[in-house]
Amino acid sequence: MMLSTKKMFLLPAVSLALAALLSACQAGTEQTVQPAAQVLAVNASHYHNVQIAGTEYQLFTDATGLQVQQGATVLSRYDGAFIRLTLQPMDDSSLLLAAMDDNSNSLYVWRFAPAEPTVLQLMQQQLISSRVVDDLCFYRSSENQQLSLFLLGGRGGADQLLLQQQQQWLAEPLVVRELNVPYDSTACAVDHIAGALYIAEADRAIWRYQAEPEADEGRSLLQVNTPFGQLQGEVKALQTLPDGSLLALEEEPVRLLHISSDGQLLSAMPVPALKEASGLSVSMTTNTTTAYISTEDAAPVQQLALTLPVMAKRTEKAAVMQIMPGLQTEPASQRGDVMDDPAVWHHPAQPELSLILGTDKRAGLDVYNMQGKRVQQLSVGRLNNVDVRYGLNWQGAAHDIAVASLRDDNSLQLFAIDATGKLHNAGKIATGMDDIYGLCMYHSSQNNQHYVFVNDKSGLIQQYQIGSDGKNWQGSLVRSLQVPSQPEGCVADDKRGLLFVGEEDEAIWRFAAAANADITGEAIIRVDGERLVDDIEGIALAEHNGSSYLLVSSQGNDSYMLYDAAPPYTERLHFRISTNPQSGIDGVSETDGLEVTTRSLGPGFEQGALIVQDGRNRMPEQGQNLKLVPWVDILQLLE
């Protein structure tokens, strides 16, 4: 697999200076210590001392290749001009090694399992054409059950390659994210528990990024060079420690820096035995921490016994259930926060001809077929939420109806859907709201009337009855409701006459949906900050075997909650939507709106689908889109 060429990124000098000033506020007082160095009888450009099943092994690279030893016994060799050897423990009996061949710019990944007949097994060999790789670092996400490898380039770019997902190896590594990093980046390391990626920008700064492939692309400054911080030389290697702190190796003069996770310099350790250094690894036992420092020209390795503070034990995050999307729509025509809410129109006779409607917050409504292709665009203005109901005459003929909240003039935008699935602009209904936002529709089984619930950022919720004079549709306000703060997502249960509303930062509310019902609501599910994390965004209902379920997008932790839609509203599932490597579809993050249908949408979605907005559309980086998960996959988790 060949990686595409990326654009270079140059950090503006002004931005760096401002960031450096912020770092100066966090800097601690340097404590200079000088531990005694011991010269090992090993010449290596990169050196690791590891313990597997109680036995120590030495893994290192020199001018001729990679070598694995147990004491003086050579267990395995692999010829090549390898640089930047990095390790990742897999279990108690094996670990992964990755390195770049400097001559061919090829990535090599091996599995080292000393108890097996072939102790060193080549897992991957791949030419990297996207960039010259200056460093490698593994990331193992316990929460999302993924193993990836960062390839750091020195000219302003990095790739994140997915190697393993839910214990399954990919046939070949898959680029799941492309990062813009500072020009002249020299080293990387990952804190697996915090999900933090650290990148050294030569002798200027150390930055922290999020390591999850679906995470926000923002970064924060950890440390900078003097006079604003404590860096003095070019940082050539980084290593994270169990407590979340960081070791940084300066090349010349050689210094080993211990930096806290909040950027404070805890200690600086000169290594005068070396004129320059480029390789760093750490070995930790119950009582000792040892650093191994090496040079590019494979001089003798220096061993330093470190005296570090007692490290607080941290626990890995628990695994979150993962489900893969089976289809995605074409991306939005513009970049940025564009798409918001989906809805489904079911073809009356042929499910595979059903359509997916998606709001565009800058332009209008996009309509997609069941292959994910855009088949219609209606440029009516900035739409936020949309919903669909069936059987309401328009222009003297049978049509279905879609209604969306139009933010340009705080109105309800109406669409008539004919029998072929073509949408027609059917006019607008003024609301008198100040900042229109979320919307959902309701069809009453008691009086056979159609209604629209629409809310305002103030917490106001209005209910409009939709009627027809035989030619056009009109709306009349029949009721007003209120929640304490900003709502958006809502869904009506036509069968039971209920309305569920998401108050974004606080709770899910239940109201009676009938136009003549009491206006008092009840908060039934509260944000807990751990599983249901604000913002509460999309809300949808699903029926299965006589049970009704409430599905909610928990935007703050990129996940989804499935509850019983009846008291006591028991939680049934907590899951995320992850990468589909076989189909080349990225995972889902920062979801706004969602929809569920349990009716067939054709091949692959015979039992319906969960449809979600994807806030960060990657593989490759494109405008936002919608992802579809077969509903049967969620049903299997419920059983």
From TrEMBL:
Signal peptide segment: 1-19
Keywords per UniProt: Signal
InterPro entries found in the cross-reference section: 6-blade_b-propeller_TolB-like (IPR011042), B-propeller_Phytase (IPR003431)
Membrane-spanning residues: none
Keyword Cytoplasm: no
Positions of the BPP domain: 23-308, 313-638
Protein name (Swiss-Prot/TrEMBL): Phytase
